[in-house]
Amino acid sequence: MLKPEGIDTSVPSPARVYDVMLGGKDNYEVDRKAAEGLLKIMPSARLVARQNRAFLGRAVRYLAGEAGIRQFLDIGTGLPTQENVHNVAQQVAPASRVVYTDNDPLVLAHARALLTSTPEGATDYVDADLREPDAILEHAARTLDFDKPVALLLVAVLHFVPDGDDVHGIVARLVERLAPGSYLVISHGTPEADPEGVTGLADEFTRQAPTTQMAFRAPADIERFFTGFEPIDPGLGYITAWRPEGPVVPPEQVGLYGGVARKP
Fold this sequence. Notes:
The protein has 264 residues and is α/β, with parallel strands linked by helices. The chain has helices spanning 14-21, 29-41, 45-64, 85-92, 105-109, 133-140, 167-176, 195-208, 219-223, 251-254, and strands at residues 71-75, 97-102, 122-127, 151-155, 183-189, 230-231, 237-238, 256-262.
């Protein structure tokens, strides 16, 4: 794969390693080696990526269908793949409007693939870090009407923000802007089901990418992000159990906690 200008291929990136786990081709040798190292520690890592993506699809289909949501803000988008948020939402509701946000230069280089939309809907891309909530909200407001319900998607991204960066304060700032009737979707790594595997995974990723800190949190800390929101049935828990479309994968094989909740 050609390297777009500004891409550092000397260290792995979370978005590109995730792409490896999903079987994508938008990654480099350093990312594939990182994935190999992670798989040695946690052989189920590919399953984790696939289950996370499946949860995102189920949540978006619910939101665009049963919940009637027409606006989506996806922070920590990752590289374009099958069933991106706008593909899923606009298949259900063609007028859906989606804003993607990521800070990975390669995601920006491929953003054009995220900006294909139905004539009735709209898509946009914000090149920003989750730690910049005000900048994200300001840019997103060009496409989304925050006086109306919006679905905020924080899928497998919050565990890349350490507690020292006030991650709960960042999420509080984002959800404060959401109108009543909005939704919050979160998936987040937790060590509860497999403490040894999760700790080893975080240590290995930081070893290979020293600038990337992973902060897996206890379920109670993850539930704090949903303060003031009403969980949608079956409630908060391991994402594999949130409205599964097949056999439920055991929590210890995935270790992602979260759910979907509504702002009253």
